[in-house]
Amino acid sequence: MPTTHHHSCTLCEATCGITVTVADDRVVGIRGDSDDPVSAGYICPKATALADLHHDPDRLRRPLVRGGVDEWFEVSWPAAIELAAAGLRDVRQRHGKHALAVYQGNPTAHNLGLITYGQPFFRALRTPNLYSATSADQLPHMLAALQMFGHQLLMPVPDIDRTDLFVCLGANPAVSNGSIMTAPNVRSRLKRVRRVVVFDPRRTETADLADEHVFIRPGTDALLLLSLVNVLFTEHLVCTGRLTPRLTGLEILRVACRDFTPERTAAVTGVDPARVRALARELATTPRAVVYGRVGLCTQEFGGLAAWLIVVVNALTGHLDEPGGAMFTTPAIDAIPLATVTGNRGSFDSYRSRVRGLPEFGGELPVAALAEEIDTPGEGQIRGLITSAGNPVLSTPNGARLDDALAGLDFMVSIDPYLNETTRHADVILPPTAPLERPHYELALANYSVRNAAKYSPSVLPRGPEQRHDWEIVLELASRVLGGGAAARLLGRFGPEPLLELGLRVGPHGLRKLRGGLSLGKLKRRPHGVDLGPLRRRLPGRLATPGKQVHLAPRVYLNDLPRLRRLLARQRDDALVLIGRRQLRSNNSWMHNSERLVKGKPRCTLLVHPDDARERGLTDGGSAKLSSAKGTVEVTVEVTDAIMQGVVSLPHGWGHHRTGVLLGVATRQPGVSVNDVTDEHLVDELTGTAAFSGVPVHLQA
Ligand SMILES: Nc1nc2c(c(=O)[nH]1)N[C@H]1C(S)=C(S)[C@@H](COP(=O)(O)OP(=O)(O)OC[C@H]3O[C@@H](n4cnc5c(=O)[nH]c(N)nc54)[C@H](O)[C@@H]3O)O[C@H]1N2
Ligand SMILES: Nc1nc2c(c(=O)[nH]1)N[C@H]1C(S)=C(S)[C@@H](COP(=O)(O)OP(=O)(O)OC[C@H]3O[C@@H](n4cnc5c(=O)[nH]c(N)nc54)[C@H](O)[C@@H]3O)O[C@H]1N2
Ligand code: SF4
Ligand SMILES: [Mo]
């Protein structure tokens, strides 16, 4: 008899509700759950691939231990954990705590066990060498949250369902389904917005839905935004509304933006000054409007400034913490008050990386520094590494250098369900259960949802007798590396659930309402999830700054403006610049082993403007050499006027040709890795965030 189960798809931030049909321990169907309060039945094609992930014969179900080059043995869990722990202890004993590094990847964000147990373990290792995908992603938004609102997690979310003007920079939500904006079925949400304006070097799927698309030169958003600020001041359009008494730094801003008129920045951004002026007026006069920026805005040379200026523009036009503007959530489990009370608001630049001096953020170093910290000899060199839910060989700038560096480590452990481009370097691979084999609560992304909601899902399928959850793996490792076996045994009896219960009870929808409030039991009785209403005004209460103020002009940004001013004077050579793109049937680097997602025409193509193609004798479908200061890859060219002249685009996450991986489907359709061409030295100097956008490249037939 088939059974049906309710769960969430955890592949991207939308976390759509799914209904899974199971017969004889096989997933026979996955559809959208029409009763999910946020996704209301929507899913994208990736959700059905969760079945492929579940049944994938290549997915590891038992630990692997390296025998020799590309030689692996399946061993029991106790043996694998002991080997892993012994290797890690050995690195720490011989070379010190700093010699052990950790890299945490993107799926951590959706993984209850890794957030509740992985984070504390990795932090308890007390190494400065913590790395994650954050510094290849949203770090600039987190820095703005810390500097302006006093807590690194206080990132506002566009209230997309109630806005009349949605201005989108460096994001393609029609494909990504939203980021720091959990908004399933973003396409239909966007279609309901009266006016959508997109600034992007590519005419994207989102641009196709928009009322207006404007090409912008990669890496120049900060200039565009500062020009908007300039117009707001010079044309007396600033209107800060009810937050006015809470805002500091307005006069400093007025001075800081003085020389950045749209007429001056146009030559660099490529955006017509008249359009900038018109947009400033429109933002100021539309009661419900919001400016939103994401990955393309963050992962560029001026990502830090750009993310700051997004908040500034929203604040100056009265759209911060107002319906239809940039708002804060009221999540059922709210980490922010707790972290604030314990003094853990976040940190920036409290130490620097050894080799290049890149700044710390939130207790981590920028991942652009990871390879050099491994391959540069000397006091403080990294000798051992744990990777957890990450594939940095494909996902970090100059992944090829990291690939080589990993081969030189003394010891490496990977907590990962696949033998892939990164984990092939490990000495021990510890594979956790898959998403359908474990309970789920969306602890992190619920903080960034366009609608407040809470949902708990039990596991859909039983795990095999030999399988372990991520939290069990890290807990075991922790007790073997750091000691504390008794505590680990106690925690091991409970897992993450008591933490959920506690979080819900003390959260804004729990205790205060006493008996009517949320509890884990209540969520278990509501398998589709509980709707907690639209976003509501949260300021000043939610601010974590002393005195509950919003700082519009923090010094770190003002100090970075001279660098932006130099961009105005920079001579443009005729090199092309490279940007990335995401694709609906792709999920960063790790879902290419699903036949249904990769079938059809190869998608890892380089988009080239017709003029640029003609100049270089390139034809549609032909191949070309794409090279940068760091590497060369051979690409298939796709000629299209959807890309700005002077810019080329290659998706990331591909490049499954490396030997020694166990990815039967992915290796048949390998593509190339854009991060074999990106440059670990090209970073936003303020934050250390990788600059994937705007890499100078050459293209040859
Ligand atoms: N050029 C370029 N590079 C980019 C980007 C870009 O736009 N352009 N985007 C960047 C961004 S935004 C991100 S977030 C990063 C992503 O980069 P990463 O986080 O490094 O890599 P992913 O491709 O998400 O790989 C996830 C890994 O986790 C494993 N995994 C999946 N689920 C689980 C689980 O539940 N537990 C464990 N333990 N492991 C699991 C998978 O097998 C895979 O090895 O890439 C960044 N890199
Ligand atoms: N299908 C699918 N969905 C995903 C993912 C996936 O891999 N596949 N990954 C998930 C992850 S980890 C994340 S972080 C989110 C990211 O979510 P988004 O940020 O919405 O995703 P991208 O498609 O990378 O959008 C970045 C856009 O920035 C543009 N761009 C590049 N450089 C610049 C620039 O300098 N200025 C401006 N204005 N635009 C620029 C690019 O052309 C691109 O359209 O998506 C998530 N959702
Ligand atoms: S948009 Fe697609 S991949 Fe993302 S959560 Fe929804 S179904 Fe899953
Ligand atoms: Mo990401």
Automatic annotation (TrEMBL):
Q: Which GO terms describe its molecular function?
A: 4 iron, 4 sulfur cluster binding; metal ion binding; molybdopterin cofactor binding; oxidoreductase activity
**4Fe-4S Mo/W bis-MGD-type domain residues:** 2-58
User: Source organism's superkingdom?
Assistant: Bacteria
- Xref: SMART domains: Molybdop_Fe4S4
UniProt keyword annotations, A-Z: 4Fe-4S, Iron, Iron-sulfur, Metal-binding, Oxidoreductase
Q: Which residues form a coiled coil?
A: none
InterPro entries the record matches: Asp_de-COase-like_dom_sf, MoPterin_dinucl-bd_dom, Mopterin_OxRdtase, Mopterin_OxRdtase_4Fe-4S_dom, Prok_molybdopt-oxidoreductase
Q: What cellular component GO annotations does this protein have?
A: membrane
Q: What is this protein called?
A: Anaerobic dehydrogenase, typically selenocysteine-containing
Its lineage reads: Bacteria, Bacillati, Actinomycetota, Actinomycetes, Pseudonocardiales
